[in-house]
Amino acid sequence: MTEPLYDTDFYQWTQTQAAALRAKDVAALDLEHLAEEIESLGKRDRRAVESYLEVILLHLLKWVYQPERRGRSWEKSLLQARHRLAKLLRENPSLANRVPGFLDEGYPHARRLAVVETGAPLTTFPETCPWVGEQVLDEDFWPEMAGDGA
């Protein structure tokens, strides 16, 4: 028995499936793998939103708790992450509604990363995210001092 094209040449499988979809050739469709791939696209975008949020949170924490180290590279990283995240949320508006939950889930990891990157004790950083989604996403939001939260 030969291996399915999906397993042996993924690119060719995608082109064959796209052609079958356009031709409405349902018999030629690999429905199980198509469903898996469509699901994975959504998961990829969700993971990207979560990742950008963690990067932003990490840089905001460092911005507040290491003001002496502020520099253009942090500012650039924040602006880039916010810009890319905004674009992703424009393309996937249903994910924008999930930002508050993503912040709750991702903040503990960003907090731990802040410990590693700053060398400060975990207790330095608030236990819960000090900012709301609108602030985190706002390219003009720059917290100036510890405790400058929502």
Give structural notes:
By secondary structure, the chain is mainly α. The chain has a domain at 44-137. Helix content is 67%, strand content 0%. It has 7 helices and no strands. The protein is elongated. The termini are far apart. The relative contact order is 0.12.
How is the secondary structure organized here?
Layout: H1 5-8, H2 10-22, H3 31-65, H4 72-91, H5 93-96, H6 99-118, H7 133-137
Helix pairs in contact: 3-4, 3-6
| Intertermini distance | 61 Å
Name the poorly predicted regions: 146-150
Tell how many strands the DSSP assignment holds. Answer: 0
Radius of gyration (CA) equals 21 Å
- How many DSSP H or I helices? 7
Largest sheet: none
Instruction: Give the SSE order as H and E letters.
Output: HHHHHHH
Portion of residues within helices: 55-70%
Instruction: Give the structural class.
Output: mainly alpha
Shape: elongated
What is the averaged pLDDT score? 93
Give a concise summary:
With 150 residues, the protein is mostly helical.
Features:
single chain, 150 residues, mainly alpha, 7 helices, 67% helix, 0% strand, disordered C terminus
